[in-house]
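Subject: sequence -> structure tokens, single chain

Hey, anyone have a minute? Need the predicted structure for the following. Not urgent.
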Amino acid sequence: MRRLLQLRGQFMRWPLAGFFCLSVCLSPVVAAEPAIDDAAVADDRLDIVLDDSLPVADFGRLPLRPNALPDAVNDMLERHARALVLREALTDERAQRRLLRRLRREVTELLSTEGYFTPTVEIDGDPPALAIEPGPRAVIGRVDIEFEGAVAEADAERAERRDELRRSWRLAVGQPFRQSDWSSAKQNLLDALTSNDYAAGALIDSQAEVDAAAARVDLRLRLDSGPAFRFGDIEATGLALHDLDLVRRYSTVRAGDPYSTDALLAFERALLSSPYFGSAQISVDRDPAAAAATPVRVAVAEASSRRLSFGAGLSSNTGYRAEVGWSDNNLFKRSWLFNTAVRLEQLRQIAFADVLLPPAADGYRDSFGALAENADIQDLVTKRVGIGAVRARIRGNIEIRHSISLQREQREIDGFVTSTQKSLALNTSWTWREVDDPFDPRSGWVLNAQVGGGVEGLLSDTNFLRTYMKAQWFIPVGERDQIILRGEAGLTSGKADALPQDFLFRAGGSNSVRGYDYLKLGVREGNAIVGGRVLGVLSAEYVHWWSHQWGSAVFVDAGDATDSRKDFEFAYGAGAGVRWRSPAGPIAFDIAYGEREQTWRPHFSLAIAF
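Reply:
Had a minute. Here:
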């Protein structure tokens, strides 16, 4: 005769709760067993009283004989079957019977959560051990998913949504039944329903009908989507220095848009990545009565408006570094962000001040600033001052930056001032990112393209056009390893001796061609290396991660920077290094051999996608 067991609700009760229920209801079950005499029943009842109220001696554990159960299930029994801990010595048959009853109840209930509904549990051998014959593991026989509410309406769009939800179901026909998989699949289905449009969706009924004899479980679920939701107005709490308009400028949701958890998460990330807020939590009113325009509720904690910072570091490119900075995110009480800093490096010293305005309604963010720099790199001394303005916007995975800059540069070579250049340049930069992790990518790619130039007589010493492209490609290998391919190409037209170094190219160093000093590959002028109008760099790297945090790499780099394409000749570098996943991203420690100079050089850098 078929035995049908129904498990209702979203979650099965815990094994301990089931054991407690069985213990309380034990008396009539024991009385119904004809093989047990009254004395045995009395012993069992006494055992229950002692088990629940009095401390008992520890007589070790009953061993578990090898069986056909998976290792993970045996481990679960070892952890959770309390009856395996002996409360009395198994010196007579009555003690073994008492233990066996407890084991059968507890082991049967535990195994049912893993899909074994007809196990045979015995104690045998000398010394005694627990023997389990699990029986067949139940599999999913049928899955019925029904819908109510707006999603059940008879139109093509909702029919496609229902089909999509059914396709997302994770516990397929023929798959072994496990209680944890059943609970997880239900939650995943509910999340899929409520992630878009149906914020008040609910799982109103779920059944797992078990046919133990046939080792089959039929699943039935019914979900009520409720009405389709749309976003309403944004409400904010926690504002003191800034106003609601600033919060709205970071919003990725608009009144009237269909409800989407992805849009809310993007809004939350935008607020948290801004300099204005230390924390942000976003929720909506899930009352079906508010579905036509559900309020978007934002709770923020504002970050400190003023901040003094200090920093120190070491780079294989520019040597030791110390920095002091100051920021104010409410300049003139207008939520303008003011950043200024002085950075002192062995080869370069920089002072700058920038003002960033809050995002505009169209998503663009404007900024302007000034910079002064002194650098002595490869015997080329440059002294530069400049001012500029930038308009930037991030839309999806694309970042666009339009800029205008005016700068004046003075060059010194071999202790003599050789030239002074000035330029007024317009530049546009596009960056595309398609990676699985922006700080520690394992797969995907990043591409940056730039174009800019200036006109002679319009605050520039020469006509020029500069184009530049850089790409990185991350290819996963196996479970942990990856291949990283990198390339750079640049070309500038115009008179090189009339252009600031910003618009020319040099190569070499930790993020360029390893095995060569920082910016060592370029055009020789006297004892100095200056920038050229042509750039090309290629790199291939294989990274093997020994653990989540530590890895090693081997690589080959090639590149050069020259003043003309006919003079271009690749300089090769190859080596190996260590990778460490720091909180800021992977840090690379490399040693590389430069073929052109026949010298080994160390390099270290923060190895993240640009």
